[in-house]
Amino acid sequence: MDIEQFRKAGYQAIDRICDYYSTLQQRPVVPPVQPGYLLRSLPDRPPEAGEDFDVIADDYQKLIVPGLTHWQHPSFFAYFPTACTFEGMLGDLYASSTCNPGFNWSSSPACTELEMMMMDWSARLLGLSDHFLNSSGVGGGVLQTTSSDSALVATVAARSRYMRTHPGTKMEELVMYVTSQTHSLGVKASLVLGLECRILDVRAEDEFGLQGETLKVALEEDIAKGKHPFFLIGTVGTTSSGAIDRLEEVGEVLQHYPSIWLHVDAAWAGVTLACPEYRKTAQLEQINKYATSFGTNFHKWGLVNFDAALLWVKSRKDLTDALDVTPEFLRTKQSDAGAVIDYRNWHLGLGRRFRSVKVWFVLRSYGVEGFQKYIRECIELNDYFASLVRSSTNFSLIAAPSFALTVFRLIPHNAFPGVTLSEDLLNDINRSMYARIGARHDILLTQTILNGTFCIRFAVGAARTRKEHLDQAWSLIQEEAGSTIEEWAE
Ligand code: PLP
User: Fold this and answer.
1) SS3 state of residue 357
2) Whole-angstrom Cα distance, residue 229 to residue 157?
3) Rounded to an integer, what distance in angstroms lies between the CA atom of residue 167 and that of residue 156?
C-alpha cells in the first residue's frame, strides 16, 4: 500500500467506524454466533500472493464485525465496561502510525516525556500526593498494559526490595497477601513468581472489605512460623461487589511492618478520585499515606481506549533496582548521566506502546470538568438502577451499591406459597434467571458469587448508556424473572 492508497483506505476505515457507531444501538450486544464460526470461514494459511486491501477491508465488515461483542453498546452492563472515546481512538491511530517502541528516552524522547507528563496530569486529576509525581524526582508514574501487569511489576519490585534489605531470606519463606475478593491478578502474580500467597477472609458484614485485625492476626501467625511477609494487595473497588478494603486499619497495622509493600489496586474505581466528593469513600487520604504503589485503569472507566493501566510508585528506585538490566546495546549517554527516565526499567518488557498520546488527547478534550461529569453521570445512573431494585418486592441488593456497580438477586418472596426459600434454592432460581438473560443478545450482564450467594452484577460505564437503557434493562430483567418464576412453579 502506498501513501495515496493508505489515504483512501484510511478515509474508508474512518467512514466505516462512524457507520458502526451510528448503528451500534440497533446491533445485538452479544453476537449470535457459535464457537468456530470464524475459524470455519478463514483459510487455514496465509495467501501465497498479496491481496487487494479493498477485499480485506470488506472481509473485516463481513466476517469480523458480526462476531464482535459490542462493549460500547449502551446495553453492555457486564464486567466493567470500557468507556472508549473517539479522541482515544485517534490517539492510538497516531501512536501506531509511528510504530515507536520508546523503551529508552533516546529511542524517542517525545514518548518518554509525554508519558511522564501524562502520569503527572493524571496524578493531579486524581488528587494523588506529590510523592507519586514524576516531577518529584523520587516517585513516579508509568503506563502499563493492564492492572495485572501493574500488580506483577509491583510484586517483582517488592520482592527484590525485601530480598536486598533482608539478606539470607530464602525465596520460599516469602509470603504475599490478598483477600478472597482481590482480583485474580494477585494469585496470578504469585503463580508467575512461584511465591506463597495467603488469601485473607473478608466478611459480608464488613461489606467484603479487609479489616486491619484480620491482617494483623495473619502476619503474626506467619511470622511465628518463620515466614517473611513482604507484600499486600489492597483493593478500592473489588470486581465482584465494588468493596473497599479498610486502608486506614490496614495502614496502621503495616506501620509496625515497614518492610511490607502495600499495592493498592483501584483498577476500576480509581477514576472516582477525580471527583472531590468521592475521595473520602475511595480513601484518597489513606492511599496517599500508606500505599507504596497505586494503580488504576483509564481503559475501564476512564474514557481511554484499551490499553492504559496507570501505575504510580513512591520510589522509582524500587522499580529500577528490580528491573534495570542494561547490556551495552541499550546504554545511552543520557541514561549514563542519570538525566532521563528509561521506561524499559519500569515494566517487564523492553519495547512499549506509545499510550500516552491517547491519554493526552482525552484529558485535553474532556478537561478535568468533562472527566468528572462523566464519572458523576455514571454514578447517578447506577443510583437510579439501584433505586429500581430497592423498590421491587422481588429483588434485593446483595451489597450496598458501589459507585457505578449494583449487585442484586431475585428473591421471589410470595411466588411459591408454602415453600421455604433456602439459600440453595435461591441460588438455583437465580442461576436459571441468569441463564435466561445470558441467552439473550440484547443485553449483557455478568454473575458473581458473594459468600456463597449467586448474584448478578450490573455495571454502568459504557459511554452511550442513558436512563432509557436502564429502564429497558430493568423491564427485561423483570420479564426474565417472571418467566423464571413460572418455570420453577411447574
Ligand atoms: N482489578 C480489579 C479490581 C478489576 O476489576 C480488574 C478487572 O476487572 C482488574 C484488576 C484486572 O484488570 P486488567 O485487565 O487491567 O488486568
Assistant:
1) helix
2) 14
3) 16
Q: What's the pLDDT tens digit per position in 404-422?
A: 999 999 999 888 888 888 9
- Type of residue found at 46: P
Three cell numbers at 227? Answer: 515466614
Strands (E), 152-308: 174-179, 196-200, 228-235, 261-265, 293-297
Query: What is the dihedral angle through the alpha carbons of 21, 27, 28, 33, rounded to the nearest 10 degrees?
Result: -100
- Contact of 444 with 69, CB cutoff 8 Å: yes
Instruction: List, for residues 449-474, the tens digit of each pLDDT value.
Output: 999 999 999 999 999 999 999 999 99
Q: How many CB atoms lie within 10 A of CB 136?
A: 16
CA distance 231 to 433: 40
Query: Which positions ≥6 away from 217 have C-beta within 8 Å?
Result: none
Question: For residues 314 and 131, is the Cβ–Cβ distance under 8 A?
Answer: yes
Atom of ligand 1 nearest to the CA of 269: 3
In a mutational test of the pocket of ligand 1, which residue from 148, 153, 210, 235 has the highest number of ligand atoms less than 8 Å from its CB?
148
From 302, 268, 261, select the one nearest 183 (Cα to Cα): 268
Which domains does the chain carry? Answer: 3-68 (1.20.1340.10), 101-353 (3.40.640.10), 367-489 (3.90.1150.10)
Expressed in angstroms and rounded, the spacing between residue 267 Cα and the centre of ligand 1 is 5
User: Angle between the 356-391 and 109-126 helix axes, to the nearest 10 degrees?
Assistant: 30
β 228-235/261-265 pair status: parallel
Our answer on whether the CB atom of 263 is closer than 6 Å to any ligand 1 atom is no
**CA–centroid distance, residue 450 to ligand 1 (Å):** 17
Cell numbers 470464524: residue: 38
Pocket test for ligand 1, best of 79, 80, 143, 147 (most atoms within 8 A of CB): 147
Q: Does the beta carbon of 179 sit less than 6 angstroms from any atom of ligand 1?
A: no
Ligand 1 proximity of 288 Cβ (cutoff 6 Å): no
C-beta separation of 441 from 68 below 8 A: no
Terminal alpha carbon distance of the chain: 63
The candidate with the shortest Cα–Cα distance to 123, out of 112, 137, 134, is 134
What is the value of ipTM here, to two decimals?
Answer: 0.98
Helix (H, G, I), strand (E, B) or coil at 238: coil
Is the shortest distance between the CB of 309 and ligand 1 below 6 Å? yes
- Compute the distance from residue 51 Cα to the ligand 1 centre, in Å: 39
Strands 293-297 and 261-265, by their bridges, are: parallel
CA pair distance 359, 302, nearest whole angstrom: 9
CA distance 346 to 333: 19
What is the secondary structure of 27-71 as a DSSP string? S-SS----TTTTTTTS-SS--SS---HHHHHHHIIIIIGGG---T
* pLDDT tens per residue, range 347-405: 999 999 999 999 999 999 999 999 999 999 999 999 999 999 999 999 999 999 999 99
